[in-house]
Amino acid sequence: MVLKKSVSILGSTGSIGTNTIDLIHRNPNKFRTVALTGNSNIQLLAEQARELNPEFVAVANEANYQSLKDALADTDIEVGAGENAIIEAALRDAEWVMASIVGSAGLAPTLKAIERGATIGLANKESLVCAGELMMQAVATHKATLLPVDSEHNAIFQVLDRQNAKAVDKIILTASGGPFRTFSIEDMCKVSPKEAVAHPNWSMGAKISVDSASMMNKGLELIEAYHLFPVDESQIDILVHPQSVVHSMVSYIDGSVLAQMGTPDMRTPIAYALAWPERMIAPSAKLDLSEIAQLNFEEPDPVRFPALRLAREALKFGKSAPAVLNAANEESVGAFLKEKIGFCDITAIVEEVLSRFDHQEITHIDDILATDKKARICALQAIEKRSR
Ligand SMILES: NC(=O)C1=CN([C@@H]2O[C@H](COP(=O)(O)OP(=O)(O)OC[C@H]3O[C@@H](n4cnc5c(N)ncnc54)[C@H](OP(=O)(O)O)[C@@H]3O)[C@@H](O)[C@H]2O)C=CC1
Ligand SMILES: CC(=O)[C@@H](O)[C@H](O)COP(=O)(O)O
Ligand SMILES: [Mn+2]
């Protein structure tokens, strides 16, 4: 009998979470679910729990505790609510944990799963952006395994020659350019949330879709790549590739460039991380290059997409700057989605908060949590000033 891999999914009700569950459903003999977590979508969380029968289900928003409890009253699944319950889910004894909570809310639970030495499928890039050094130190100290799920980083992980790290010349992160790749600044400043979440290639949650539209997603991914892979900031390039077929590349000192390709379906990188070090079948459409016929590449435009410069500056500055960048961006994206500010205000506010902030050294997760809180207050003031 083959032992089932025990898995927990933090953020099971989101886009990454539901794609992960899709793969688990297709492989009932391979996986056993230990814990699931959500925030607002109680109906889906309860349905997932009924189907997968985990030990424990947690909801971050405490106001949703009773409805989740009621929905699972006739089962023996334990139910928890609040930030501590999400931490408890991360601490439950699953070998493999999908970190797919959106935003810096994912940091503390991901770190707890790392500290117990689990294998983490990391989708939650914001945690690495905020606390890259601390997280990577914790991975080494606790002998945890961090498997990048973000499609670009998963691609790099697949083509990086770890035996010859010194032979790496560049990491080339591909970017679709988002829905406004060809827009003028004037037109971009007028776009609606509906237009911003309509990614040309990927189906994703609202926050990351807006990040893709501003290209802050690529800025966050630059910082993510810096922490995940043994390269300097100057060795990470960003290249616009509108088809999202080449998910990223590594170029070597001998002139070889290795790329990972596939159709834009997150079930491929999730399946890679779920099955690692083996591989498993994923239902993603097969790549047909003759049908696609053309793959295009172009340099990103730093004027229309200032997020790329802001993220690189924050990475170079270090200290609390990346955590401030992330917090200000999360608040601004939230305000844009609520139509309180315009699309171009997002990066303007991030820049304003970054420049006003007294950046401090980070030595402990509490420093990150305090920075995150302070930067959000600062961002909310800037949002208020620009509110429509
Ligand atoms: N979607 C994608 O294809 C990709 C996503 N990523 C990254 O993966 C992460 C998840 O993205 P995505 O799945 O698109 O996001 P979604 O918005 O679709 O899902 C987010 C998940 O987090 C939960 N959640 C929201 N707020 C909180 C909170 N405060 N505390 C605990 N849980 C919370 C949501 O619960 P509920 O729905 O119940 O409210 C949901 O389960 C992000 O960091 C994103 O950048 C990376 C690469 C690709
Ligand atoms: C699927 C995934 O990994 C996203 O991060 C995606 O890369 C977004 O596309 P952009 O290249 O437009 O940011
Ligand atoms: Mn990505």
UniProtKB/TrEMBL annotation:
Which InterPro entries does the record cross-reference, listed alphabetically? DXP_reductoisomerase (IPR003821), DXP_reductoisomerase_C (IPR013644), DXP_reductoisomerase_N (IPR013512), DXPR_C (IPR026877), DXPR_C_sf (IPR036169), NAD(P)-bd_dom_sf (IPR036291)
Where does the DXP reductoisomerase C-terminal domain start and stop, copy by copy? 261-376
What's the catalysed reaction? 2-C-methyl-D-erythritol 4-phosphate + NADP(+) = 1-deoxy-D-xylulose 5-phosphate + NADPH + H(+)
Q: Which residues form the 1-deoxy-D-xylulose 5-phosphate reductoisomerase N-terminal domain?
A: 7-132
One example of the protein's molecular function in GO is: 1-deoxy-D-xylulose-5-phosphate reductoisomerase activity
Keyword Manganese in record: yes
What keywords are annotated for this sequence in UniProt? Answer: Isoprene biosynthesis, Magnesium, Manganese, Metal-binding, NADP, Oxidoreductase
Known EC number = 1.1.1.267
**Which terms under GO biological process does the entry name?**
isopentenyl diphosphate biosynthetic process, methylerythritol 4-phosphate pathway involved in terpenoid biosynthetic process
**Which pathway does the database say it acts in?**
Isoprenoid biosynthesis; isopentenyl diphosphate biosynthesis via DXP pathway; isopentenyl diphosphate from 1-deoxy-D-xylulose 5-phosphate: step 1/6
Which part of the chain is the 1-deoxy-D-xylulose 5-phosphate reductoisomerase C-terminal domain? 146-229
Per its Swiss-Prot or TrEMBL entry, what cofactor is needed? Mg(2+); Mn(2+)
**Residue numbers binding Mn(2+):** D150, E152, E221
Q: What top-level branch of life does the organism fall under?
A: Bacteria
Where NADPH is bound, by residue? T13, G14, S15, I16, N41, N124, E126, G205
Top-level class of the enzyme under EC nomenclature: oxidoreductase
Metal-binding among keywords:
yes
Sites binding 1-deoxy-D-xylulose 5-phosphate sit at: K125, S151, E152, S176, H199, S212, N217, K218, E221
Function description: Catalyzes the NADPH-dependent rearrangement and reduction of 1-deoxy-D-xylulose-5-phosphate (DXP) to 2-C-methyl-D-erythritol 4-phosphate (MEP).
Q: Which PANTHER family match?
A: 1-DEOXY-D-XYLULOSE 5-PHOSPHATE REDUCTOISOMERASE, 1-DEOXY-D-XYLULOSE 5-PHOSPHATE REDUCTOISOMERASE, CHLOROPLASTIC
UniProt similarity note: Belongs to the DXR family.
Q: Per its UniProt record, what HAMAP family does this chain match?
A: DXP_reductoisom (MF_00183)
Q: State the name under which the record lists this protein.
A: 1-deoxy-D-xylulose 5-phosphate reductoisomerase
Q: Which organism is it from?
A: Terasakiella brassicae
Q: What is the lineage of its organism?
A: Bacteria, Pseudomonadati, Pseudomonadota, Alphaproteobacteria, Rhodospirillales
Q: Which gene encodes it?
A: dxr
